[in-house]
Amino acid sequence: MPTRTVVIIGGGIAGLATAVRLIQNGIRPIVLEKRPFLGGRAFSFIDKDSGEEIDNGQHVFVGACDQFQQYITDIGASNQIQLEERIGFPVLKNGKTSWLKARKLPGVLANLSALLGYKHVGLTGKLRILWGLLSIKLTRLNKNSAHDLLTFDDWLRDHAQNDETIRNFWNLIILPSLNDDITGVSAHTGIELFKVALLGAAQNPAMGIPLAGLSTLVGENAKNFIESNGGEIRTGIDVESLHIERGQITGVRTTGDELIEGEAVVSAVPAAAMNSLIPGGSDGQDDFFTPAESVRTAPIVAVHIWYDRPVLTEKFVATLDSLLQWVFNDTDLKSRNEAGQHVVISLSGAWEWQDRSKQELRDIFTLEMEKAFPAAGKAKITKFTIVKMLEATFRVEPGSQKRRLSQRTPLPGFYLAGDWTDTGWPSTMESAVRSGNLAAEYIVEDIRTGDQPTL
Predict the structure, then answer these.
(1) 318 to each of 88, 164, 266, 423, how far by Cα in Å?
(2) Strand ranges (DSSP E) for 246-395?
(3) I want to staple 135 with a disulfide (CB 3.0 to 4.6 A). Which of 24, 53, 61, 159 is the partner?
């Protein structure tokens, strides 16, 4: 059978996942990436100050991210990630550490047992949390649900939660997971998150960590798979517009006026970049794409500190009543054999920090490290750098559900992928993969290749 070709704009995880799934269905993808590297917002680079390959930010996944894990397996990189058996991480507050750690119990009981030994919430607070989780379990959601019109903070307070439980439990999970404070995210997304994370299988909330640099993990491995199976990857290609023939999208034009043709085109770029590609004046189509113009983003700032000796004993630590939020021991996570220690401080919802200078951030966060970890006060800092991702994720604020578009559009031959599209997941690597899988499945259905043998 003749090989069909699909053009994919964007070489991030969503675009690469689309390409992998198309190949598995006998379709040849051509992936066009504007930058000289793949991975989108998940990449690594050589830091000019340290000379070390570092990730642009600390990326994690959880056990519930089944499609992301399958994608990693499909591209032959399953040995480059590690997933814990169940949830378990230390939480540091005012110099005292307590663990949120699940017992070896079946199903949801394992996740709920993590509350038992958690000392940063009292007995009454734990009962409140259990009532909140029960309320979540009994809540039914749909895309037009009124839960998307109020904040998760407001919903929780209407369901017996108070400052203690919200600060020391709910927002501890919401802030890093959704890259926004609990007062800024929709109740719909918050409820959805806890339904999957704590009210599902025992391994659902377990943390997974990349063991290799992100550019290798999600970029080079995907490139090797795609190219070895007849697909094409082209970097340094800037797409200027969609090419339309007889009302059908049949390719793209680059800024160099090159026409790259395909039977379909997938936009796997952020909402703002996608909007710039859409031709205006088409009947009914503007109404479909218009909501995406309101998609807003949130920043993440990663603070990288290299010490001349170990200052953390755990692989990662969450903090309360501290500016640090989450601290990762990158040296241990990447199994590096070195005398010192590379620490990554991950700052979610980082509007307060995005405009601060490198020296300001160094002064603030080296002092915070000394307050939280006494060993840091005795260690010498050998290297220091900052990575700012100003548009790291899309915001799941109230009203955001209606801004998330389907992967199939009313423009014939035009499809969408990207974590911001309608996947049922927040802005995560899992959402990116799910969007790519959905886009590919729609394409397979629409160009009638579903009966071709898979690889």
Answers:
(1) 11, 16, 38, 28
(2) 248-254, 259-261, 264-267, 297-307, 316-320, 326-329, 341-348, 381-394
(3) 159
User: What are the b/e assignments for 422-447, b being 16+ CB within 10 Å?
Assistant: bbebbbbbbbbbbbbbbbbbbbbeee
Would the pLDDT of 281 be above 70? no
Query: b/e map of 67-98 (b: 16 or more CB within 10 Å)?
Result: bbbebbebbebeebbeebebbebbbbbeeeeb
Distance of CA 191 to the CA centre of its chain: 18
Residue-level pLDDT at 168? 98
Query: Annotated binding residues for FAD, as ranges?
Result: 239
394: three-class secondary structure by DSSP: strand
φ and ψ of 186, to 5 deg: -75, 150
Give the H/E segment covering residue 48. Answer: none
CB 298 within 8 A of CB 393: yes
Average pLDDT of 148-162? Answer: 97
- Rounded to the nearest 10 degrees, what angle do helices 123-138 and 187-197 cross at? 100
- In the three-class reduction of DSSP (H, G, I as helix; E, B as strand; rest coil), residue 108 is classed as helix
Return the minimum-mean-pLDDT range out of 140-149, 205-214, 336-345, 443-452.
Answer: 443-452
| Beta carbons of 305 and 390 less than 8 angstroms apart | no
How far is the C-alpha of 23 from the C-alpha of 237, rounded, in Å? 21
Q: If you average pLDDT over every residue of the chain, what do you get?
A: 93
Average pLDDT for 275-287: 72
Residue 226 has pLDDT above 80, yes or no: yes
What pLDDT was estimated at residue 339? 84
**Can you name the residues that pair with 387 across neighbouring β-strands?**
302
Residue 69, H or E segment: helix 66-74
Q: Which residues contact 283 (CB under 8 A, 6 or more apart)?
A: none
Annotated binding site: 239
pLDDT digits (tens, 9 = 90+) for 193-205: 999 999 999 999 9
Closest CA to 417 of 274, 286, 290: 274
Tokens of residue 77, six digits: 């990189």
Question: pLDDT per residue over 378-421, tens digit each?
Answer: 999 999 999 999 999 999 999 999 999 999 999 999 999 999 99
Q: How far is the C-alpha of 191 from the C-alpha of 182, rounded, in Å?
A: 11
pLDDT tens digit sequence for 287-327: 899 999 999 999 999 999 999 999 999 999 999 999 999 99
User: How far apart are the C-alpha atoms of 193 and 111, rounded to whole Å?
Assistant: 14
Place of tokens 């989108």: 40
